[in-house]
Specification:
By secondary structure, the protein is of the alpha+beta class. It folds into two domains: 243 residues, Zn peptidases (Aminopeptidase, 3-Layer(aba) Sandwich); 109 residues, Alpha-Beta Plaits. It is built from nine helices and 19 strands. β18 and β19 form a beta hairpin. α1 crosses α3 and α7 crosses α9.
Length: 358
Amino acid sequence: MQKLLEKLVAFKTITDDKDENQRALLWIESQLKKHLHTKILTKNSFSSLVATTRKTKKPHLWLAAHLDVVPGPTKLFKAQTKGSKLIGRGAYDMKFAIACYIKLVQDLKEKVKDYDFGIMITTDEETGGESGTGFLLKQGYTSKYAFLPDGGTSLMIERGAKGVWNIEVESKGKSTHSSRAWEGENAIDRLVDFIEDIKSHFPKEPCGDKTHYHNTISVGKIKGGEATNQVPAQATAHIDIRFIPEVGGRAIMQLVEKEARAHSITIIDSRFGNASHVDVKSPFVQTFKKLYKKMHNITLGTEFSHGSSDARFFAEYNIPTLLIQPKGAGHHTDNEWIDMKGLEKYYKVMKAWVMEIA
């Protein structure tokens, strides 16, 4: 397992490096094609690999993962070990899963044909996932269940995740000299007024709720103006909104669009992802919990995620998705690590679970 993960970490699969992602996918395909039906598909220059035990677009179970990672220093692409920790970019987010999938096929060998599952590897998750998982599901690559260990940190089953709506908004005004501001219309002022009105509909932090189970808003970027002594005629802002499943994206959209009309603001770009929910009492999830307890005497807990993953695409197709990761931490940091002893235990449960579910 460790050699597989070290090999995967060594590929510098930053999302924008599509050639490197393609090379890594071809290597993964070479590890699988002896026993699986494989195919590489491309959307908007982003490549994805699908590999199935049977020649079908609809296996009983998808084992999903993303190969792409966020940028980092070159040294992070050479895995290091400290005790039982393996440190490197993508080790926890989420190349360990791909290593597990490869090992599963290698272990099952010819017996893999006795099961009905597929492996789905994408390369655009860190920038949205629409050209990877989103595209594949639209192409009919569906299933009854999905397994996506891109959430549920350190053996906590993810019971749900907030939805996300990223928008870019634009304000238009009228430029004039700042000494005669009354002759112009300040686009930045208009934009700030809009943002303040939108934020009034969200809880302020600190909110007093330790779980933070509520909608959130964050302004990540503002741009406008050309000179200090000039009233700006144009301004833009990038806004990140997260919402709980009970609220729903439609209500959030209606709220923002109403305020945008009131302030003469235009939404010029948008990226939306549904909130997701998993019934942790379902046999699909409970089987995994029981196997962990039986094999390692570990009782798994649950958690709700404030972040987002490709699980939102499976949710759109009503595909229950199990998200749970082994012990590790530091994703998107220079100290990203995974516990290899814990990963070996995790793999044994995952293998037994796949053999039972699929």
